[in-house]
Amino acid sequence: MTRHARNCTAGAVYTYHEKKKDATASGYGTNTQRVGKDSIKDFDCCCLTLQPCRNPVITKHGYLFDKEAILEYILTKKREYARKLKEYEKQMQQEKEQTAKEELKVLQDYLNGRQDIANRLSSSNTSDKASVSNMTNGRDKVLPSFWIPSKTPEAKEAPLQKPDGTIYCPVSGNPLKMKELISIKFTEVTDPDDKRSLIVKQARYMCPITHDVLGNNIPCAVIKTSGDVVTMECVEKLIKKDWINPLDNSKLKPSDIIPLQRGGTGYASVNDSLEGKHERPVLQA
C-alpha cells in the first residue's frame, strides 16, 4: 500500500495536488492572488481622484469625495444634461415641422387630384417617364454603405429620448444633490517627535474622542452635526448610551451617525472581490 502523502509518486491516481502543482509549473490553469495593501484605496482618499482629500465631503450614504472634484463632476453632468435637452427639443421641433409638411402635402395632393382625368392622361403620355435608376437626379453623388446598418436605405435615425435630469453618485448610483453634501473634518495625530509631512505618515488621523488611530481596517462613522470622524466602536460604546456628542454635549439622533464607506479596490465589486485572477490555458488531465 502506498503512502498517503500529497507528494506521493507511487500512486496510480493523479491527485488534485499533483495536478495543481504541475499546472503552476507548466504555465496552465488560473493564477489567483489576493489583492495587496497597495491596491486598496485609503479611507481618507476621494472616490474620484483617489488622492487624499483637501476639503473632504461625504454623501448621505457615506461616500467620501474631495469637494472640488465632486462639484466639478456635478457641473459636468448638468452641462451634459443641458446639451442633451437642447438636442431633444430640436428633434421635437423638427418632428412638428415634418408633420406640418406632410399635412400640407396631403392637402396639395387632394387638390391636384381633382383635375380632369383626361388632362392627367394626356400629360402623362406627353411627359417623359420617371427613371427608376439610382444614378439619376443627383443620386450618383451619394454612395450608400449597404454593409453598415445605419446607412441602408431602410434605416431610420434612432429617436432621442428625453434626458434624465437627475444626477447620480458615481460610486453608489444613488441620486446626488449638492445641498446634501456634508463637510467633515479629520483629527490629525499629534506627535511632536514626528516632523514628517502629513501625506507621508501612515497614521495620519485619529478619533477625537478615543484617540484611536484611523485606518482601512477600522470601521469609522461621521457625526453629521459636527462633521467629526470617529470610530464605530466609539459610537457603539459611548455615543449610543445616551445619544450625546462627547465633543460638544449636543443631542444626537440615530440619523446623525453616517457610516463612512471604507476604501475599495479598482474592481467592479468594491470590497467584495479582493482576489485577482489571470486566466490561462487549462491543463487537461
Could you tell me the strand content as a percent range?
Answer: 5-15%
Structural class: alpha+beta
Number of helices: 4
CA gyration radius, whole angstroms: 35 Å
Helix content: 25-40%
Distance between the termini: 24 Å
Q: Give the ordered list of helices and strands.
A: HEEEHHEEEEEHEE
Across the major sheet, the strand order is 3-2-4
Count of β-strands: 10
Can you tell me the overall shape? flat
Unreliable residue stretches: none
Characterize the main sheet: 3 strands, antiparallel
- Report the mean per-residue pLDDT as an integer: 79
Report on the architecture of this protein.
It is a single chain. The chain is an alpha+beta fold. Helices cover 27% and strands 11% of the residues. The chain contains 4 helices and 10 strands. It has helices at 16-26, 67-112, 117-126, 232-242, and strands at 31-34, 56-58, 64-66, 182-183, 187-188, 205-206, 220-223, 229-231, 257-260, 275-278. The strands form 4 sheets. It has a 3-stranded antiparallel beta sheet. It has a 3-stranded antiparallel beta sheet with strand order 8-7-9. The longest helix has 46 residues, at 67-112. It is flat, with a radius of gyration of 35 Å. The model has no long low-confidence stretch (mean pLDDT 79).
